[in-house]
Amino acid sequence: MNGAPTLALIALILGLALWIVLARETFAAVAGFIAYGLLLTLAWVGLSAVDVAMTEAAIGAGLTGALLIGAASRLRGGGYAEVRMRRGLAVRVLAIAASIGVTAVLIVCLRLLPEPSPTLAPLVAEHLPAIGVGNPITAVLLAFRAMDTLLEAIVLLFALIAVWSLTPDAAWGQPPDVSHDADPQGVLAYVARVLPPIGIVIAVYILWVGADAPGGKFQGATILASMWLLVMMAGLTRAPPVSSMALRAWLVAGPLVFVAIGLYGAWMAGAFLAYPDGFAKPLIVVIEIALMPSLAVTLALLLAGAPRDAGAVR
């Protein structure tokens, strides 16, 4: 992507970013943020970073957008008035100046990089055949820096525990409530019935091809989490109680499989998370299959938030 389309996309991204900062209404700013994430997705596609583009679309525009919409809904539904700071203009100008400053620093840092820029890409390409996967992103995440990926999955669990710790004592053990007063015959309920089967198929496909093509467990998990949230928001089902042992088993199953394979590597290959010769790709696929449902449940419950209603489960 080059020439006029690139300049137009850059102008749209910058203009939308400015509009988000200056927007007066919360929902308008959130809608702009979601559109901003989609434009960044196009930018990453133009840079041939398809894996990053998929993650941006799923996280930046999808789950983060849903989180912000939920936060805005709670503020409005809770009777909070739109925040009007006395020095609103000054705050916005400061935000714009800070954004421009950070952007300028990043540009200067990029310009100061030597030519060619330092990279480990040749080493990754050299050892990729030994791993057996065709997607270098998957090789990096689950072979060359598998420990980081394991810790990221565990950090998500700790983040969920932190969210649950905000639960009032009287509400502990209840399910999070993300449902809206949706018409059972309305558009939201209709979409929540039609879209999830399609989303599940796409998520499984993205997981399966992730070893050799753009995709993988995290992108698939975000799609599954989005589908589950959609069904819950439409009121077609409820989240499980946070005290459910089955729920907790789903949450820890993926990381436990990851740790078990790491210990197997320590026994068979001499190092934690090392893979025996000829078994790297099968073990990576097993890790991805085990992690995807755990990540999906974790992400969905992170967005659902802590239980707030101490009443009985409906």
Please outline the helices and strands.
Layout: H1 4-22, H2 26-46, H3 50-77, H4 88-112, H5 121-131, H6 136-144, H7 146-164, H8 187-209, H9 217-233, H10 245-268, H11 280-304
Give me the secondary-structure category.
mainly alpha
Low-pLDDT runs? 79-87, 310-314
- As for the number of domains, it is 2
Helix content: over 70%
Number of strands: 0
What sort of overall outline do the alpha carbons produce when their principal axes are compared? globular
Q: Number of helical runs?
A: 11
Summed up, what is this model?
The protein has helices at residues 4-22, 26-46, 50-77, 88-112, 121-131, 136-144, 146-164, 187-209, 217-233, 245-268, 280-304. With 314 residues, it is mainly alpha-helical.
Structural description of this entry:
There is one protein chain. This protein is 70% helix and 0% strand. The protein is mainly alpha-helical. Helix 5 packs across helix 6. The protein is globular.
